[in-house]
Automatic annotation (TrEMBL):
Its EC number is 3.4.19.3. One of its GO terms (biological process) is proteolysis. The keyword Cytoplasm applies. It comes from Myripristis murdjan. GO terms for molecular function: pyroglutamyl-peptidase activity. Transmembrane segments: none annotated. This is Pyroglutamyl-peptidase I. It catalyses: Release of an N-terminal pyroglutamyl group from a polypeptide, the second amino acid generally not being Pro.
Length: 211
């Protein structure tokens, strides 16, 4: 199919108590399930390292336009406190004091010098949440405005900053608390599809809007 939509979804490597990171397991499950014939899905595992995020994300195709028809970048992380699949509405610039897998944290404790305190995704996460919860998926989805001030929040803010808000972040619980890898994969599939539909709707509204 010509001009297929492109979506990048990332998960994180193990860290701390998360010797198996459910975010990467869920992303791999999504990769097996796919997003349908009209979408090319690309997945990758992100190191739990501040400097690696700073080196990798500036070369993301969303920013460089090296991947035509790229619609969205979705980052997935694990939260040991979560019992739902949580959509993060925004990323934060400051407050990064926790050491990463290399025992490092930024001296400035921020993502981008002189960047705004908070950046919102262009996606209305409340709308995505309602649609998925109403679908009868069997996985509870919620919305948050605090991604945690660690590598999840750091990656999200950096991605939002570089991609002009066309990014999303999803927190998943650890495996079995309460969802299986397959359930998490199905939830990611449903969520990303809703995000793509919302972006398409917004595109048409802007296309046909006459001020």
């Amino acid at each position: 199919m010509a001009n297929k939509k492109k979506v990048i979804v990332t998960g994180f490597e193990p860290f701390g108590e998360h010797t198996v990171n459910s975010s990467w397991v869920a992303v791999q499950e999504l990769d097996r399930l796919g997003l349908g014939e009209a979408v090319d899905l690309y997945v990758c595992e992100v190191p739990v390292e501040y400097q690696a995020v700073q080196k990798k994300l500036p070369f993301c195709p969303l920013v460089t336009s090296s991947l035509p028809f790229l619609q969205l970048v979705v980052h997935v992380g694990v939260s040991g406190l979560a019992t739902t699949v949580t959509l993060e509405q925004c990323g934060h610039n400051e407050g990064y004091r926790r050491l990463d897998n290399c025992s490092y944290c930024p001296a400035s404790q921020c993502c981008m010098e002189n960047g705004p305190d908070c950046i919102n995704s262009v996606l209305d996460m409340d709308a995505v949440c309602r649609k998925v919860n109403d679908s009868g998926l069997g996985v509870v989805v919620s919305v948050s405005k605090d991604a945690g001030r660690y590598l999840c929040d750091y990656t999200y803010y950096t991605s939002l900053y570089l991609g002009q808000g066309r990014s999303a972040f999803i927190h998943v619980p650890p495996l079995g608390k309460p969802y299986s890898s397959w359930e998490l994969g199905k939830a990611l599939q449903a969520i990303v599809r809703e995000m793509l539909e919302l972006l398409e709707l917004d595109r048409h509204l802007h296309l046909y809007y006459i001020p």
